[in-house]
């Protein structure tokens, strides 16, 4: 009875061809620990070491590993010949994606437009929710690619930083806040003002809460008049005088530029966070998903 798997053979050949465990993990969209585990299981099943781990400079095969490599390569090549039989199905693949509000509205559209230009066969669906909802979809297996503004479920979800975002306090552009701005106040000085907050579970709210905890401001002392899940609505509410709000600088750049809103850095250093590409650890990705992940990861951090 054959007990080893194609994934174990794929990992073994990748280590040989890419020259290291780390490079193999990167190309296979696995963690390095998962690559090591697959190889160790294969070695245990075959009853022999395949990689000489005493060699630190390069990957060196044992005699048994050298014998296995061409056979493993032949098996994997034969399996690849199955794919053209289902090429039409692959072309019709629709990739499900999910994104939290800020990356979904202000970052992802350009990413996906650029990828579609590079691969016109790309088709996708995109659902939006808060970061907690995207992580739930990832852990429940509903999607394999998500975009979030906060890290969660690190044991089961891998996070790759795509872009840096800055959170700012936005206020109405009136005489009162113009005076505060001129006096050099920071967003942290306005935390007690009437506030229109993002929904609990959003990356923005989580980052803001962590910030308040770190500077010693009691979260319960916030004067929250409303929680709203849409930055566009919040901006209009703030401009109308309902309160202040902590929002992404990506979301408010146009309003700050045209004078609808005022923007305050939270403090002298600024409150920054990353926007992440989130994928389940050790997931089996489709060819199109692999192309998309590789394309997005190769974009420079903005």
Q: Which descriptors apply to this entry?
A:
45% helix; two-stranded antiparallel ribbon; alpha/beta; 302 residues
Question: How would you describe this structure to a colleague?
Answer:
The chain is an alpha/beta fold and 302 residues long. It is built from 13 helices and 11 strands. The strands form 3 sheets. Strands 3, 4, 5, 6, 9, 10 and 11 form a 7-stranded mixed beta sheet that branches. The mean pLDDT is 89.
Strand runs, count: 11
Structural class: alpha/beta
Number of helices: 13
> How confident is the prediction overall: mean pLDDT?
89
Condensed summary:
The chain is built from 13 helices and eleven strands. Strands 3, 4, 5, 6, 9, 10 and 11 form a seven-stranded mixed β-sheet that branches. Strands 1-2 form a two-stranded antiparallel ribbon. The chain has helices spanning 6-18, 21-28, 32-46, 63-80, 87-91, 101-106, 108-118, 131-139, 175-182, 203-215, 231-239, 249-258, 287-297, and strands at 51-52, 60-61, 95-99, 124-128, 145-148, 157-172, 194-198, 223-228, 245-248, 261-265, 271-280.
């Amino acid at each position: 009875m054959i007990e080893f798997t194609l994934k174990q053979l794929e990992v073994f050949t990748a280590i040989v061809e890419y020259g290291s465990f780390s490079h193999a993990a990167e190309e296979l969209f696995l963690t390095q620990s998962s690559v090591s585990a697959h190889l160790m299981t294969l070695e245990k099943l075959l009853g022999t070491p395949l990689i000489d781990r005493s060699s630190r400079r390069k990957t060196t095969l044992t005699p048994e590993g050298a014998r296995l490599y061409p056979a493993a390569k032949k098996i994997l090549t034969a399996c690849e010949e199955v794919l053209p039989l289902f090429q039409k199905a692959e072309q019709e693949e629709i990739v499900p994606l999910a994104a939290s509000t800020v990356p979904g509205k202000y970052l992802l559209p350009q990413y996906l437009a650029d990828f579609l230009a590079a691969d016109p066969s790309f088709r996708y669906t995109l659902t939006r929710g808060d970061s907690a909802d995207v992580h739930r979809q990832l852990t429940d297996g509903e999607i394999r690619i998500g975009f979030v503004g906060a890290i969660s479920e690190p044991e089961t979800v891998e996070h790759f930083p795509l872009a840096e975002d800055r959170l700012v306090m936005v206020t109405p552009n009136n005489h009162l806040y113009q005076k505060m701005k001129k006096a050099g106040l920071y967003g942290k000085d306005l935390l007690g003002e009437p506030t229109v907050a993002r929904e609990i579970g959003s990356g923005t709210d989580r980052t803001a809460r962590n910030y308040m905890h770190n500077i010693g401001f009691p979260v319960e002392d916030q004067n929250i008049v409303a929680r709203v899940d849409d930055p566009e609505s919040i901006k209009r509410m703030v401009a109308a005088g309902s309160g202040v709000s902590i929002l992404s600088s990506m979301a408010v750049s146009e309003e700050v530029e045209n004078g609808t809103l005022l923007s305050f850095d939270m403090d002298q250093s600024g409150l920054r966070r990353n926007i992440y590409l989130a994928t389940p650890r050790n997931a089996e990705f489709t060819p199109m998903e692999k192309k998309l992940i590789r394309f997005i990861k190769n974009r420079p951090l903005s």
